[in-house]
Amino acid sequence: MLGVTMPASSYGRRRGAFLAMAAAYVDTCGFIGLFGLFTAHVTGNFVLIGADLVSRQGPVLTKLLALPVFVVTVLLTAQAEVLLRRRGKAATAWLLLVEALLIMVAALAAWFLPSSGTPDDLAGMRLGFILVTAMGVQNALMRTSLAGPVQTTVMTGNVTQTTIDLLALATGRADPATRTRISGAWPAIMAFAVGSALGAAGYAWIGFECLWLAAILVVAAALLSLGDSVQH
Prior knowledge:
This protein has 232 residues and is mainly alpha-helical. It has a single domain, classed as Up-down Bundle (Growth Hormone, Chain: A), CATH 1.20.1250. Helix content is 75%, strand content 0%. It is built from 8 helices and no strands. The chain has helices spanning 8-33, 44-55, 61-86, 91-112, 122-141, 156-170, 176-206, 211-231. The longest helix has 31 residues, at 176-206. The two termini are 16 Å apart.
Protein backbone atom coordinates (compact mmCIF):
# COMPACT_ATOMS: atom_id res chain seq x y z
CA MET A 1 0.00 0.00 0.00
CA LEU A 2 2.79 2.41 0.87
CA GLY A 3 4.53 1.76 -2.43
CA VAL A 4 1.67 3.27 -4.45
CA THR A 5 1.90 6.98 -5.07
CA MET A 6 -1.41 8.80 -4.72
CA PRO A 7 -2.27 12.47 -4.30
CA ALA A 8 -2.57 13.55 -0.69
CA SER A 9 -6.27 14.29 -1.21
CA SER A 10 -6.78 10.68 -2.27
CA TYR A 11 -5.16 9.47 0.95
CA GLY A 12 -7.45 11.76 2.93
CA ARG A 13 -10.64 10.67 1.18
CA ARG A 14 -9.86 6.99 1.58
CA ARG A 15 -8.84 7.40 5.19
CA GLY A 16 -11.96 9.42 5.93
CA ALA A 17 -14.16 6.78 4.32
CA PHE A 18 -12.52 3.98 6.33
CA LEU A 19 -12.87 5.91 9.59
CA ALA A 20 -16.47 6.94 8.90
CA MET A 21 -17.41 3.35 8.14
CA ALA A 22 -15.66 2.13 11.29
CA ALA A 23 -17.33 4.77 13.50
CA ALA A 24 -20.80 3.99 12.15
CA TYR A 25 -20.14 0.27 12.50
CA VAL A 26 -19.05 0.55 16.14
CA ASP A 27 -21.79 3.02 17.06
CA THR A 28 -24.48 0.79 15.57
CA CYS A 29 -23.16 -2.32 17.31
CA GLY A 30 -23.03 -0.48 20.62
CA PHE A 31 -26.50 0.96 20.22
CA ILE A 32 -28.03 -2.43 19.45
CA GLY A 33 -26.03 -4.57 21.85
CA LEU A 34 -25.65 -2.19 24.79
CA PHE A 35 -29.23 -1.06 25.29
CA GLY A 36 -29.07 2.15 23.30
CA LEU A 37 -25.57 3.35 24.22
CA PHE A 38 -23.93 5.66 21.69
CA THR A 39 -20.18 5.01 21.69
CA ALA A 40 -19.10 7.47 18.97
CA HIS A 41 -21.86 10.10 19.10
CA VAL A 42 -21.69 10.24 22.90
CA THR A 43 -23.70 13.44 23.34
CA GLY A 44 -26.65 11.58 21.83
CA ASN A 45 -26.76 9.64 25.10
CA PHE A 46 -28.18 12.70 26.85
CA VAL A 47 -31.26 12.59 24.63
CA LEU A 48 -31.70 8.94 25.53
CA ILE A 49 -31.14 9.65 29.23
CA GLY A 50 -33.94 12.21 29.13
CA ALA A 51 -36.22 9.78 27.32
CA ASP A 52 -35.40 6.96 29.77
CA LEU A 53 -36.03 9.18 32.79
CA VAL A 54 -39.38 10.37 31.47
CA SER A 55 -40.57 6.94 30.39
CA ARG A 56 -38.87 5.18 33.34
CA GLN A 57 -37.68 2.48 30.97
CA GLY A 58 -34.44 1.57 32.72
CA PRO A 59 -31.16 2.57 34.40
CA VAL A 60 -29.02 5.35 32.90
CA LEU A 61 -25.72 5.10 34.81
CA THR A 62 -23.70 3.72 31.87
CA LYS A 63 -24.94 6.49 29.58
CA LEU A 64 -24.12 9.11 32.23
CA LEU A 65 -20.60 7.80 32.79
CA ALA A 66 -19.89 7.53 29.06
CA LEU A 67 -19.27 11.29 28.81
CA PRO A 68 -16.51 11.56 31.47
CA VAL A 69 -14.87 8.44 30.01
CA PHE A 70 -14.99 10.11 26.61
CA VAL A 71 -13.62 13.43 27.90
CA VAL A 72 -10.69 11.75 29.67
CA THR A 73 -9.90 9.83 26.48
CA VAL A 74 -9.88 13.02 24.42
CA LEU A 75 -7.51 14.67 26.90
CA LEU A 76 -5.14 11.71 26.92
CA THR A 77 -5.21 11.41 23.14
CA ALA A 78 -4.44 15.10 22.62
CA GLN A 79 -1.55 14.94 25.06
CA ALA A 80 -0.22 11.71 23.58
CA GLU A 81 -0.27 13.27 20.14
CA VAL A 82 1.82 16.21 21.35
CA LEU A 83 4.38 13.91 22.98
CA LEU A 84 4.62 11.63 19.94
CA ARG A 85 5.18 14.56 17.59
CA ARG A 86 7.91 15.94 19.82
CA ARG A 87 9.68 12.60 19.44
CA GLY A 88 9.31 12.66 15.68
CA LYS A 89 6.78 9.83 15.57
CA ALA A 90 3.88 9.43 13.15
CA ALA A 91 1.40 10.40 15.86
CA THR A 92 -1.79 10.04 13.82
CA ALA A 93 -0.94 6.56 12.61
CA TRP A 94 0.13 5.35 16.06
CA LEU A 95 -3.01 6.67 17.73
CA LEU A 96 -5.23 5.13 15.08
CA LEU A 97 -3.51 1.83 15.81
CA VAL A 98 -4.34 2.37 19.49
CA GLU A 99 -7.98 2.87 18.48
CA ALA A 100 -7.88 -0.35 16.45
CA LEU A 101 -6.33 -2.20 19.38
CA LEU A 102 -9.11 -1.03 21.69
CA ILE A 103 -11.75 -2.27 19.26
CA MET A 104 -9.94 -5.63 19.12
CA VAL A 105 -9.94 -5.76 22.92
CA ALA A 106 -13.69 -5.17 22.89
CA ALA A 107 -14.17 -8.00 20.40
CA LEU A 108 -12.07 -10.33 22.54
CA ALA A 109 -13.91 -9.28 25.70
CA ALA A 110 -17.22 -10.06 24.04
CA TRP A 111 -15.89 -13.48 23.07
CA PHE A 112 -14.32 -14.55 26.36
CA LEU A 113 -16.31 -12.70 29.02
CA PRO A 114 -19.99 -12.84 30.02
CA SER A 115 -22.38 -10.86 27.86
CA SER A 116 -24.38 -7.90 29.09
CA GLY A 117 -27.84 -8.68 30.41
CA THR A 118 -28.99 -5.27 31.64
CA PRO A 119 -28.10 -1.66 30.73
CA ASP A 120 -25.95 -0.96 33.79
CA ASP A 121 -24.40 -4.31 34.60
CA LEU A 122 -20.61 -4.66 34.84
CA ALA A 123 -20.32 -6.53 31.54
CA GLY A 124 -22.16 -3.81 29.65
CA MET A 125 -20.18 -1.00 31.28
CA ARG A 126 -16.88 -2.72 30.59
CA LEU A 127 -17.56 -3.29 26.91
CA GLY A 128 -19.26 0.06 26.43
CA PHE A 129 -16.44 2.06 27.97
CA ILE A 130 -13.82 0.26 25.89
CA LEU A 131 -15.71 1.25 22.75
CA VAL A 132 -16.30 4.80 24.01
CA THR A 133 -12.54 5.07 24.60
CA ALA A 134 -11.78 3.82 21.10
CA MET A 135 -14.17 6.32 19.56
CA GLY A 136 -12.83 9.05 21.84
CA VAL A 137 -9.42 8.61 20.21
CA GLN A 138 -10.94 9.06 16.76
CA ASN A 139 -13.03 12.05 17.84
CA ALA A 140 -9.94 13.73 19.30
CA LEU A 141 -7.92 13.20 16.12
CA MET A 142 -10.73 14.73 14.06
CA ARG A 143 -10.10 17.96 15.97
CA THR A 144 -6.29 17.86 15.80
CA SER A 145 -4.21 16.17 13.12
CA LEU A 146 -7.23 15.07 11.06
CA ALA A 147 -9.11 18.35 11.46
CA GLY A 148 -10.90 19.48 8.33
CA PRO A 149 -14.29 20.08 6.76
CA VAL A 150 -15.20 16.38 6.79
CA GLN A 151 -16.03 14.64 10.06
CA THR A 152 -16.05 10.87 10.44
CA THR A 153 -17.85 10.18 13.72
CA VAL A 154 -20.97 12.31 13.18
CA MET A 155 -22.50 12.96 9.75
CA THR A 156 -24.96 15.78 10.49
CA GLY A 157 -22.48 18.55 9.67
CA ASN A 158 -21.26 16.77 6.55
CA VAL A 159 -24.78 16.25 5.24
CA THR A 160 -25.76 19.85 6.00
CA GLN A 161 -22.74 21.33 4.23
CA THR A 162 -23.04 18.96 1.27
CA THR A 163 -26.72 19.84 0.84
CA ILE A 164 -25.85 23.55 0.76
CA ASP A 165 -22.97 22.91 -1.66
CA LEU A 166 -25.16 20.82 -3.98
CA LEU A 167 -27.69 23.67 -4.07
CA ALA A 168 -24.88 26.06 -5.03
CA LEU A 169 -23.77 23.62 -7.73
CA ALA A 170 -27.30 23.23 -9.09
CA THR A 171 -27.86 27.00 -9.24
CA GLY A 172 -24.51 27.80 -10.86
CA ARG A 173 -23.00 29.47 -7.80
CA ALA A 174 -20.42 26.79 -7.02
CA ASP A 175 -16.75 27.77 -6.91
CA PRO A 176 -13.75 25.38 -6.88
CA ALA A 177 -13.87 25.20 -3.07
CA THR A 178 -17.49 24.07 -3.22
CA ARG A 179 -16.64 21.26 -5.62
CA THR A 180 -13.69 20.25 -3.43
CA ARG A 181 -15.93 20.02 -0.35
CA ILE A 182 -18.45 17.88 -2.22
CA SER A 183 -15.79 15.49 -3.50
CA GLY A 184 -14.31 15.24 -0.01
CA ALA A 185 -17.57 14.71 1.87
CA TRP A 186 -19.54 12.22 -0.19
CA PRO A 187 -17.19 9.23 0.37
CA ALA A 188 -17.47 9.68 4.14
CA ILE A 189 -21.25 10.07 4.02
CA MET A 190 -21.70 6.96 1.89
CA ALA A 191 -19.20 4.99 3.99
CA PHE A 192 -21.04 5.98 7.18
CA ALA A 193 -24.33 4.72 5.77
CA VAL A 194 -22.71 1.46 4.68
CA GLY A 195 -20.98 1.09 8.05
CA SER A 196 -24.29 1.47 9.88
CA ALA A 197 -25.88 -1.25 7.77
CA LEU A 198 -22.90 -3.57 8.12
CA GLY A 199 -22.73 -2.99 11.87
CA ALA A 200 -26.38 -3.93 12.29
CA ALA A 201 -26.02 -7.00 10.06
CA GLY A 202 -22.79 -8.06 11.73
CA TYR A 203 -24.23 -7.79 15.23
CA ALA A 204 -27.36 -9.69 14.20
CA TRP A 205 -25.16 -12.43 12.75
CA ILE A 206 -22.43 -12.96 15.37
CA GLY A 207 -22.80 -10.29 18.05
CA PHE A 208 -19.89 -8.15 19.15
CA GLU A 209 -17.38 -10.53 17.59
CA CYS A 210 -18.17 -8.67 14.36
CA LEU A 211 -16.13 -5.72 15.68
CA TRP A 212 -13.04 -7.21 14.05
CA LEU A 213 -14.08 -5.65 10.76
CA ALA A 214 -14.14 -2.19 12.34
CA ALA A 215 -10.64 -2.78 13.72
CA ILE A 216 -9.40 -3.74 10.25
CA LEU A 217 -10.88 -0.55 8.80
CA VAL A 218 -9.06 1.58 11.38
CA VAL A 219 -5.79 -0.25 10.73
CA ALA A 220 -6.24 0.53 7.02
CA ALA A 221 -6.73 4.20 7.92
CA ALA A 222 -3.55 4.10 10.02
CA LEU A 223 -1.59 2.69 7.06
CA LEU A 224 -2.95 5.46 4.85
CA SER A 225 -1.79 7.99 7.45
CA LEU A 226 1.69 6.47 7.28
CA GLY A 227 1.61 6.70 3.50
CA ASP A 228 0.52 10.33 3.69
CA SER A 229 3.36 11.17 6.08
CA VAL A 230 5.91 9.37 3.87
CA GLN A 231 4.73 11.29 0.83
CA HIS A 232 5.16 14.58 2.67
